[in-house]
Specification:
Elements (H helix, E strand, L loop, with lengths): L1 H7 L4 E4 L6 E4 L5 E2 L1 H12 L7 E5 L4 H9 L3 E5 L3 H10 L4 E3 L5 E3 L9 H15 L3 H5 L6 E2 L3 E4 L2 H17 L3 E3 L4 E5 L2 E7 L5 E8 L2 H18 L2
Parallel strand pairs: 4-5, 4-6
Antiparallel strand pairs: 1-2, 2-3, 6-7, 8-13, 9-13, 10-11, 11-12, 12-13
Helix pairs in contact: 2-3
């Protein structure tokens, strides 16, 4: 996709998964745009056009989403990962828009709310045509956080939930601010740590984010060491 965008001098590259409910986005300069950045672009466009200025994002999304919603005067709902969960929550709360990092997004301003990669692609095309901007220009001022990929740790099903419970106990002992809507997400002013039990296999998954590389390394080391200790 990236090679083809450059070859064709295209304005944008759009890709879709097998059943068409997720969309991947490549800019005119062949940069992949994570779904949470796409969501920020859409929320910026929507917030002054909708009555209810509340938007949903899942626990894996960058803190930049939370920051941007707050800066725009809106309210964010951080929710558990999983297409069925996030889609149902957006409908239940009657939200104009929501999504999750995996690529599922739900428009309810002019769309019934189900996740369609094709429709998500059309909405970014519409935005490009209205603004005259490139995708690079639309995302250039989004606050940047350093983040890891999703990391996996083998853990039998009978153990992984016990590990998550102990991570929660650790967070309480350290007096950390945390969410337990989906595993344990420890919230810092300059980043976060997420440790979850996989929904699909005998694994623990973790992801970390911070304002600086040094802080990311600190957070990552603390919680990977903790996982290693608890997952024996």
């Amino acid at each position: 996709m990236k090679r083809k965008v450059l070859e064709e001098k295209a304005d944008i590259g759009l890709s879709f998964d097998g059943d068409g409910d997720r969309m991947g986005l490549v800019t005119n300069t062949a940069k992949f745009v994570p779904t949470d950045q796409y969501m920020i672009v859409i929320i910026r466009d929507l917030i002054d056009k909708v009555e209810k200025k509340t938007f949903l994002y899942d626990v894996k999304c960058s803190k930049a989403v939370e920051d941007e919603i707050r800066n725009l005067g809106g309210k964010g709902i951080c929710y558990r990962t999983g297409n069925s969960y996030t889609k149902a929550k957006v409908k239940e709360e009657n939200l104009p828009f929501g999504g999750e990092l995996s690529g599922h997004v739900y428009f309810r301003d002019r769309w019934p709310g189900f996740d369609s990669g094709l429709y998500a692609g059309l909405r970014i095309l519409e935005l490009l045509s209205k603004t005259g901007k490139t995708v690079d220009e639309l995302i250039e001022d989004i606050p940047y956080y350093y983040a890891t990929e999703e990391l996996k740790f083998k853990s039998p099903d009978e153990r992984k939930f016990k590990v998550i419970a102990k991570v929660g106990e650790y967070a309480k002992e350290k007096k950390y601010n945390f969410l337990d809507i989906d595993g344990i997400k420890v919230l810092f002013d300059d980043g976060w740590a997420l440790v979850r039990a996989s929904n699909t296999g005998p694994n623990l998954t973790a992801r970390f984010e911070a304002k600086t590389k040094e802080r990311l390394e600190e957070i990552q080391n603390e919680f990977i060491n903790l996982i290693d200790q608890l997952n024996k």
